[in-house]
Each structure stands twice: as structure tokens, then as C-alpha cells.
Design the sequence.
């Protein structure tokens, strides 16, 4: 009967929408109540140790400071053997580890412990201490504890699978974001850093880097470095076959090194020169269409000793995205006549910027006559439009896309063509719709303290300063087309229409939804006013 009652309580507990830690706390309450025990603990395996995740009883706070080696003490022996145990008198059992009990001044009489086990996998141990009224533990008690331990193992495994699924979803969402960002721009040098930070964060790493092969010297050169000591690391060059990156480039294979101190392929002089301490590395080749063009490295897993094998697949996919974007940028560079020394397209010469009209004419996008006509129209205008707008809107001799490609070349700013899947709505909602529409701008992503914004005029300092003041983020602008931006704003934002009965005709009031933080109060205010005025219905529709 006690076993059935315990299972019923556990089944009710497992469906509650509460964190795992709270669930384990409540589960141990059920254990103590069912086994009629004075104290107890739930320990989980971390490396070679058992760690107190839940402790119950008089000394619960003190005992949680300790870690127990697997194989040491009653709990340690149970974790090592995977077998349950009853100790009627701890003073007569040499496996009892007295140090913790003596340190916290807790008198222990008897113990019962069971492994938290699912098939051959052991998660930890549940142990209960001191049967109430100095009673003894029975085989019925042990049967109940083993049943609860098994249910706990199921709970922990489900949580692990859920966490793993969420981790994979997050990783591939990041992969999609990086791919879209890289391949939607004609110039990727200023976005590679953002992409690497996304990868570093997704893979929970301390640092990362992209190295490209210098065709003249056949050396690997650091192009992007994320993490500490980045400036020192950028000065270092590696020969093909040298270090982990050199090995990956030479063999065209990914590589996971769990402990660099034990791997002879690791180039120790990189750490010695930079002052950075490398512990583990996962690396993959950047594969171009015909050859390896570089290497991506992710360094030092946060919270764990090393990266896992299943992370290699994600890194390979990321490397493929970056390699494709690099080669696309190379093609774009050649199309617009840019010099690409030794095919190193990310490092570009800082040249004096030409006027947009000169660039359009140089690339044969407009004729000399078109430019003269445009300048003549501009001269006559009281409120002068930009020459590019005149060529597109007034003369119709140029497409908006062609104009923006030329502007991207002139300003050295990425030109982005957006799709809905590229936009983080929470980023867009940071700013009011009316503001964004009037400035032809749309935030698409926030990362750390930076907000990526696509706008028709990425040199509008006043607009950028206003956005930074309203959001608290540092704005990183990219170039976009007016049509594309307005289309995306219409997709992201919605309007609320309130209809009142006024005789035979209906009066319609539209509320444009501002940023997320303004939304609730604005809707509440409008609805309150509408109710007072005799509301008939509320409709929600796209702008």
C-alpha cells in the first residue's frame, strides 16, 4: 500500500510544470515520508565524485558542502557497484565514511541506499539515514526506495533528453542565423565577428577563431579571433601541418582534442606567445569548392572538461556555411573589380571613397547622359533628393537593388536582403513601429549589447543615436532596400482596429503597435477608451 501511495504521489509530481531542482526536492520529501526516515540525500555523479543535490534533515545545509568520491562511503560504494544496500548498524560496517558525520556532528545509526539507475547507466544514489524511533530498515522499505530511485532515473533521463533536444535546436537555429546573415550580405568581413560570437555562445566556449590560408606563403593566418588575447593571437601564423589547425587544414578532417597537454599536435608556442591557456579544442576545415581555404577552431568548453563528439557535426555544418560565404564574397569582389591580394578577400585595402554617381558609371550601371540628367534634376529641386533616389524614382534608369550594391561598395557596409526567417521579432519590438517606418529601418538581431539594424541610410548618425538611446544597445547598421524593409515591417508588426457604431457608418481607429514594452499599456488605454465610447468589436489584422 505504501508503495502504491508513493508511486501515485510521484506520478502527480512528474507532471507539474516546475524546475527539475524543485521536483527533486519534493521527491525526497516523498522518500522520507514513505520510508519513515529522519534524514536523507540525493547525490548525482559529476566526474569521479558524488555531489549532494538534495539533502533533508537537521544538518541538510552543512552536508551539501561535501563531495564524495565514487567508491568511498556507503553512497560511493552503491554508485560504484550499482547495487542497493541496507546497513543495520553503521558502526559495524567498514564502508561507512565517518568523516562527514563527525564534521557536521550528526549521529548515524543505520543507512539504506539505492542507485539511481536506468539499464546500465547510473545517475547517482538516494540514501536515507536513521529509521524513525530507532527502527530498522526492511526489505519492503528497500523495495520502495528502489522503485522511487528508478522513477528518479526516468525523470533525470527525460530532463537530459529535453536539454539535449533544446541544445540541438538552439545550435541549429544559430546555424541557420549565421548562414542567413553571411549569405545575405555581399560583404561579410564585419559580420564574421558576430557569427563567431554566435558560434562561441552556442557551443558554450571561451574562445574561437577563423584562420585562412595565405596562398603566397601556404600559412594559416588568423582572420577572426573571439575571446581573450585576440590581438596577440592575430599576429601568429601557422605552417600547414603545424598545430591543431595546421593538421586539420592539411588532412581536410575535423579534429576533437579533449586535452591539448596530451596531444603532440597542439602548438604550445601559440599559448606561450599570447598568454592564453588552451585546454581543449574542436576544429573543422573550411572547404571550398576545390580545396581547403581555412580552419575554424572553438576553444575551451565552459562548464565541462572538453567538447563532445556530437558537437563535431554542428561545427562541420557551420564551417561549410562560412566557407560558402567566403567564396561568395570572393565572387562579389571580382564582379565589382576589387583587388583580392592572394585571394584573401576579407582583408581589403582602405581606398578613398568615390562618389556614388562615379561608381554607378564606372560599373556601367548608368550612362554619362543618365548621370547628367539626374544632376540637372537635383539642381532644380528645392528639397534636394539624393542622386541615387533620382536615378531610381525619377528617371527609372536604375533598380533599387543595383543602387544598393553600389552603395555597399562605396560605404563598405553590408547590403542585406531580408526574409522573415532572418528576423528576431523581439529585436524588432524594441523600437516603435512608427519610428522604424519613418526612418526605413528594422532591427533584425540582438546579441550581447549589440543590435543589428538594417536601414536605407546606415550613415544617419542622428537616427542611430536615437535607436541607441531608446534601446540601450549599440547599433550595428547594415544597408537594406526601402521596399524590402517596409515589407518586413508589415510582416512583423500588426495593427489593432477598434470599430464603433456611429449611425449607419462605422468609425475605425487604428493603433500601430509600438515596441513590445509599450504594447500592453497602449492597447489597454485604447480599449478602455473604446469601451467608454460603445465598442462593438475588436479585430486583429496585419498592417
Sequence:
Amino acid at each position: 500500500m505504501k508503495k502504491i501511495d508513493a508511486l501515485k504521489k510521484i506520478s502527480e509530481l512528474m507532471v507539474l510544470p516546475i524546475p527539475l531542482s524543485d521536483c527533486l526536492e519534493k521527491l525526497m520529501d516523498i522518500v522520507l515520508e514513505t520510508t519513515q526516515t529522519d534524514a536523507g540525500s540525493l547525490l548525482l555523479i559529476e566526474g569521479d565524485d558524488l555531489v549532494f543535490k538534495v539533502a533533508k534533515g537537521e544538518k541538510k545545509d552543512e552536508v551539501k558542502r561535501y563531495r564524495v568520491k565514487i567508491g568511498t562511503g556507503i553512497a560511493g560504494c552503491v554508485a560504484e557497484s550499482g547495487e542497493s544496500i541496507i546497513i543495520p548498524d553503521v558502526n559495524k560496517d567498514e564502508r561507512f565514511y565517518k568523516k562527514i558525520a563527525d564534521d557536521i556532528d550528526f549521529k548515524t545509526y543505520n543507512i539504506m541506499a539505492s542507485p539511481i539507475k536506468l539499464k546500465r547507466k547510473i545517475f547517482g544514489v538516494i540514501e536515507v539515514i536513521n529509521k524513525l524511533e530507532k527502527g530498522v530498515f526492511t526489505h519492503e522499505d528497500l523495495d520502495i526506495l528502489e522503485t522511487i530511485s528508478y522513477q528518479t532515473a526516468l525523470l533525470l533521463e527525460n530532463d537530459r533528453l529535453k536539454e539535449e533536444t533544446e541544445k540541438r535546436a538552439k545550435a541549429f537555429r544559430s546555424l541557420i542565423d549565421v548562414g542567413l546573415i553571411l549569405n545575405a550580405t555581399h560583404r561579410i568581413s564585419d559580420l564574421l565577428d558576430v557569427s563567431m560570437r554566435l558560434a562561441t555562445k552556442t557551443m558554450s566556449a571561451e574562445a574561437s577563431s577563423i584562420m585562412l590560408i595565405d596562398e603566397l606563403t601556404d600559412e594559416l593566418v588568423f582572420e577572426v579571433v573571439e575571446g581573450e588575447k585576440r590581438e596577440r593571437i592575430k599576429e601568429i601564423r601557422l605552417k600547414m601541418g603545424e598545430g591543431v589547425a595546421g593538421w586539420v587544414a592539411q588532412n581536410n578532417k575535423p579534429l576533437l582534442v579533449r586535452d591539448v597537454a596530451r596531444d603532440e599536435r597542439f602548438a604550445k608556442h601559440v599559448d606561450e606567445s599570447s598568454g592564453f591557456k588552451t585546454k581543449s579544442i574542436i576544429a573543422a576545415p573550411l572547404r571550398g569548392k576545390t580545396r581547403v581555404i581555412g580552419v575554424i577552431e572553438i576553444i575551451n568548453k565552459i562548464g565541462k572538461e572538453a567538447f563532445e563528439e556530437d558537437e563535431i557535426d554542428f561545427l562541420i555544418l557551420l564551417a561549410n556555411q562560412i566557407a560558402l560565404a567566403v567564396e561568395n564574397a570572393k565572387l562579389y569582389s571580382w564582379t565589382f573589380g576589387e583587388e583580392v591580394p592572394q585571394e584573401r578577400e576579407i582583408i581589403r585595402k582602405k581606398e578613398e571613397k568615390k562618389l556614388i554617381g562615379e561608381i554607378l558609371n564606372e560599373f556601367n550601371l548608368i550612362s554619362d547622359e543618365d548621370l547628367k540628367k539626374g544632376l540637372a534634376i537635383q539642381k532644380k529641386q528645392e528639397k534636394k533628393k539624393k542622386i541615387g533616389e533620382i536615378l531610381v524614382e525619377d528617371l527609372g534608369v536604375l533598380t533599387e537593388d543595383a543602387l544598393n550594391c553600389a552603395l555597399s561598395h562605396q560605404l563598405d557596409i553590408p547590403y542585406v536582403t531580408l526574409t522573415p526567417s532572418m528576423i528576431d521579432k523581439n529585436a524588432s519590438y524594441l523600437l516603435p513601429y512608427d519610428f522604424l517606418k519613418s526612418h526605413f529601418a528594422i532591427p533584425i538581431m540582438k546579441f550581447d549589447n549589440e543590435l543589428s539594424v538594417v536601414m536605407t541610410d546606415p550613415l544617419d548618425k542622428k537616427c542611430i543615436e536615437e535607436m541607441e538611446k531608446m534601446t540601450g544597445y549599440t547599433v550595428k547598421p547594415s544597408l537594406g532596400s526601402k521596399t524590402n524593409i517596409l515589407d518586413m515591417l508589415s510582416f512583423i508588426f500588426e495593427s489593432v482596429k477598434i470599430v464603433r457604431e456611429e449611425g449607419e457608418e462605422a468609425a475605425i481607429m487604428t493603433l500601430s503597435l509600438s515596441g513590445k514594452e509599450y504594447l500592453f499599456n497602449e492597447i489597454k488605454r485604447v480599449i478602455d477608451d473604446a469601451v467608454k465610447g460603445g465598442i462593438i468589436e475588436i479585430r486583429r489584422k496585419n498592417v
